[in-house]
Amino acid sequence: MSKDTFSIDITRKNIRVCDLEEKDGKIEILSLGYDDIVPNFLLDDNPLLQKEQAKKLLQLYQNLKISKKKVNVVLPDSVTYSQIIEMPKLNEQELMLAIRYQADEFIPMPIDEVYLDIEVLKEDPKNSRQLTLIIAAPKNTVTRIYNMLSLAHLVPKNLENELSVIGRLIALRFSQSNECTVLVNFGFSGTSLYLVDPLSHIIVATRSFKIGLDLIVRDLKVNLNWDEKNTYEALKNIGLTQNATVDIYKIIYPIMKEMFRELEQFIQLAKSKYNLEVNKVYLFNFDSSIANFAPTIQSNMSVPTLPLPIGSILIPNVITQSFSSEISSFVSVIAAQIK
């Protein structure tokens, strides 16, 4: 954990900022906050959007009274490409060549237009095999972010995606658990599922699909003729509570049914391919934006489901108390500083 850096988590809806330090094996949050992102900042090369986003980030940074200039950046899984594959044991150069050769299997754009990052998660010397995490980020997306940080007078130190930082967080801070878990990264533009092996405590499989908070919001706005503000408030206060004044669950059930199907298939994959029986499902990211989200998943999956207990590794203070109801939404930005 570097003492000269803070972290930002960039999503399609907002940007989260965190500064922390380690004390006696736990994490103390020094600063924590978020602000809406400039629309289309992650998708458009317009320099004016970068300038506007830099201004907003700088204002948040100053409001949080952070003095550090170096920053670890987390990108959403939905704007990067990730794959966990088992490969023959190779040296770094051979590994990169092999991955570039088969990259078109999971990267839907020319290999020369992305930055590739490789991490060996686990080695099997006996069988000369290794489990490898491959992450690709579009170069134009990275350029937008670096330009924006430069305009905000900040210096990028690390750039990772959600899968990478969450994998490190679980391995380093939740390795005492012997449960087989599935992590549900419920994002704005999509959801990622991560299977955590109970023995190695590493993520051994992942799957992504295009169901996120944005799809649910758009569906409600169309069906109920609500504006965006009322839609977000209703999801936060009523959410999936059945028999409420407005039965949101009934309206968005087709979307939720598809999410249940994806999760069920992933749990089946854990059993059939990895011989792992999933004991628990943990949620994070935008899960706190929908009331009764975890209990609804639990009742449909028949697997204990709850927000990822990030609070168990944090030192309680005024900040954690202020964000107690939504602390699971800050998991990635907290994880970005944990090494």
From TrEMBL:
Name the InterPro entries on file: ATPase_NBD, FtsA/MreB, PilM
Q: Which Pfam family, giving just one, matches this sequence?
A: PilM_2
Name of the protein: SHS2 domain-containing protein
Q: What is the species listed in this Swiss-Prot or TrEMBL entry?
A: Candidatus Roizmanbacteria bacterium RIFCSPLOWO2_01_FULL_41_22
